[in-house]
Amino acid sequence: MKLINKLWVGMGILVLISPLGLLLPERFKAGDAWGEWGTDGIKELVGYIPQGLEKLSSLWSAPIPDYAFKGWEEKGLGSLSFAYIVSAIVGILVTVCIVALVGRLLIKKE
Amino acid sequence: MEWPGFTAVKEEKMHIPDGYLGPATCGIFYAVMLPIWTIASKIVQKTLKAKQVPILAIGAAFSFVIMMFNVPIPGGSTGHAVGGVLVAILLGPWAACIAITVALVVQALLFGDGGITAIGANCFNMAFVLPFVGYYIYKAISYNASVDSNRRVFAAGVAGYIGINVAALLAGVEFGLQPLLHHTATGQALYCPYGLNIAVPAMAGEHLLIFGWVEAIVTALVVKYLQKQSPELIEEREVA
Lengths: 110, 240
Description:
The complex is a heterodimer.
Chain A: H1 3-17, H2 20-27, H3 39-46, H4 51-57, H5 77-106
Chain B: H1 4-10, H2 23-47, H3 53-66, E1 71-72, E2 78-79, H4 84-91, H5 93-111, H6 119-141, H7 150-181, H8 196-229, H9 231-234
Antiparallel strand pairs in B: 1-2
Helix pairs in contact in B: 1-8, 2-5, 2-6, 3-4, 3-5, 4-5, 4-6, 4-7, 5-6, 6-7, 7-8
């Protein structure tokens, strides 16, 4: 098998096990406020909401926020893991397309 | 142990979100990155061959997906490797700059991972400083080493460790400067509320202890694998 194909197989494995990046922090109670970090959380921590932070923090509304589908926040870890894998696939596809496009624009055919 | 610094920096990891850096800081880093992106494009245009584009694409994809692997510090914060030093070792730091920039922009726009106002700062830390520091450390340690030498594996690990730690330190400084730069008359912070005394130890400490080792292991293992599978990727060459 060509190296590049082997590397893509490796990437596929990474995608399949990517929910570890979601489940391990959950398991060890780290990042338990995953995706919930907002102005409420910071108010609890410092006693007030920094004004500029409040304004800017809602500036951009990402289509797949924190690698989870909108409205799925309350779903179980299984659904969240599924969304995580889909996010990884979408992200990789978009990334590869952009690099291919940049490559085509920059590099002349030999 | 609930140390406010750790809790505060927990969600943002190395990706600075919108609202944590003031407009001046955001603007400065966009202004700094603009010429860097321009130079990177020109150099990549000259040095990268068409057949290397698939490797560049896979490097960017690898960096994207490896950043999804949040590693927990039990009861504390999470963080991740960037994979950027690896891309720099294989394709040179300028190509790595472009690959990681693409990954970071996709993360910010599609997934809200890192703010859009902070793309300049996040790219400076992770797409510029990280690959360049890592690349030159790798070069220095692996100087004159044969392609299959273990010194290259060691060099890759050290480069990964130091590269991500310098980037984390910078992110900590960028966070920590905000209360000094932007505050109300009564002293309330406008953006990141934690100063250097909390942000820098939190960012630097957790990367020195945990996440730096993740980057080191990832970088070293892949270099070790490629030494056997594809020595030509590891071979010394003059890529800028």
